[in-house]
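Project standup — Tuesday

K.O.: blocked on the structure for the chain from last sprint. Re-posting the sequence here as requested.
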Amino acid sequence: MDARGWLAFLEELADEADPVALRYFRTQDLVVEEKPELGPVSEADLAIEEAARSLTSQRHPDLGILGEEQGETAGSIDTRLIIDPIDATRNFVRGIPIFASLFAIEESGELVAGVVSAPALGARWSAARGHGAYSGSRRLRVSGIRELSGAQLFHGSLGGVEAKQHPPGLNTLIQRSERQRGFGDFYQHVLVAEGAGEIAVDPIVAPWDIAPLLVVVEEAGGRATTLGGERTIYGGSFVSSNGVTHEEALRILAG
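H.V.: unblocked you, prediction finished:
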């Protein structure tokens, strides 16, 4: 199947996930458990991943699956679905509408399609390799700002566990950029793809946290790498940018 065919399937998965997320969002009796060292998992996370796996087994039983909640299931072809049922679960359980279901297709090690669906925001971002990135019918383009002095920088938490993993030059990058906002999670990276900011920094990530984001950012004309500059979702960190500010930002972050 080509990238656009996979994208249509991911959109179908997102259509299934959105009403499930909204059904649980801001409910008083939401069941939440704490995974050791991994943060909270809600019953909505579990329900969305189960639904996605069920639909995948019906539509594409040969696909492998890598999901945040149920781990890896081998397939019979070198293509797999990567699922984060609810990215920004802490936002979700606190009633903050900045959360999303993330779906991506990885084919022979390359991310070829991705969907980020944020139903409480009424927004969705999608991309198929070679066919651009979109939010609805609007094609996404990164910004053309070339200087850090004019850049808007996005980041996550500045304290707690995440602070222990901050790159040594983060404070310097904050000082060198024009403006900073702490959206964190998926949202900062889709904002980069939209051209609303130039750099977003994630010092701690798992593959499912960023799989569709790499496709969306790149198809919008940007760059996405680890803090060390590797183009991979398996490096444990993630920096997205409009491309022209990327190398300088990485050098500063490295301290």
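K.O.: great, moving the ticket to review. The helical segments are 3-24, 43-59, 89-93, 160-163, 170-176, 185-194, 207-219, 246-253. The first strand starts at residue 32 and ends at 35.
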